Amino acid sequence: MQTTGSLKCMKKIIKIIDNISGFSGWIAGIFIVVAMILIVAEIIWRTGLSSTLYIADEYAGYIMVMLTFCGLAYTLRERGHIRMMMLPRFIKGRAHIIFNMVCFAVGFVFCIALTWFTFVFFLDSYVSGTKSMHVSETYLAIPQFFMPFGAALMSLQFLAEFLKGVVMLRGDTEGLRILEERDDLGR
Predict the structure, then answer these.
(1) At 131, is the secondary structure helix, strand, or coil?
(2) How confident is the model at residue 9 (pLDDT cuts 50, 70, 90)?
(3) Which candidate in 42, 70, 132, 171 could, as Cys together with 28 as Cys, close a disulfide (CB 3.0–4.6 Å)?
(4) Residues facing 139 on adjacent strands
(5) What is the pTM of this model?
(6) Which residues, in sequence order, are CB contacts of 64 under 8 Å at separation 6+?
(7) Mean pLDDT in the chain?
């Protein structure tokens, strides 16, 4: 049986991971704004000067990868990922919490593997000095860095969600932000 000291430590870890995920959500939001500015600048440049920035399409793609991976953990924290809810609707109480914990454990293992494979991908580009074939010759390790970074953050968030299940089973969720799945399609 866990002591109250370990429960406090677990709650602190959950809060830290939730805060990191919130920060990564802000980073994703900033990337959305940067992408929008880049696309609007390209539109103005093409319309007003009958020319192009040459990098807008390429960098918009990089930014999409960066914001997607940075937003994964935040989206999990906010229960924004699509889930199949047919089976969980029939499970109630402690069984539902345990079912969610199993799902979070599977997600954690998957994200650890995703982190590893994206890190190898990033490391290969870093070591070989791979550059894009476009005009900009962008050093590809820079946008690829966000893939293992975001996958690692999502792994941490899966861990936090699992730990939230442990805390819920203990019945002491005071001070934690616990979101439940909604049955309806809206939020």
Answers:
(1) strand
(2) confident
(3) 70
(4) 131
(5) 0.85
(6) 35
(7) 87
Token duo for residue 175: 């001070």
Residue 82: inside a domain: yes
User: Which among 29, 36, 87, 79 has a CA at the least distance from the CA of 59?
Assistant: 36
Q: Is residue 22 part of a domain?
A: yes
- State yes or no: pLDDT of 186 exceeds 70: no
Q: Quote the CA–CA distance of 27 and 73 in Å, as a whole number.
A: 11
Q: What whole-number distance in Å separates Cα of residue 20 and Cα of residue 112? A: 17
Place of tokens 């997600």: 107
Show the DSSP H helices in 50-140 as ranges: 56-77, 94-128
Q: Single out the residue of 45, 11, 9, 16 nearest to residue 172, CA to CA.
A: 11
Structural domain boundaries enclosing 140: 4-170
Domain count, the chain: 1
β-pair partners for 131: 139
- List, for residues 42-53, the tens digit of each pLDDT value: 999 888 888 888
**Angle ∠(75,144,68) on CA atoms, nearest 5:** 20
Tell me, yes or no, whether 181 lies in a domain: no
d(CA 37, CA 155): 31
Q: What is the three-class DSSP state of 171?
A: coil
Does 183 map to a domain?
A: no
Q: How many helices (H) and strands (E) does the chain have?
A: 4, 0
pLDDT (tens digit per residue) in 97-153: 899 899 999 999 999 999 999 999 999 999 999 998 888 888 899 999 999 999 999
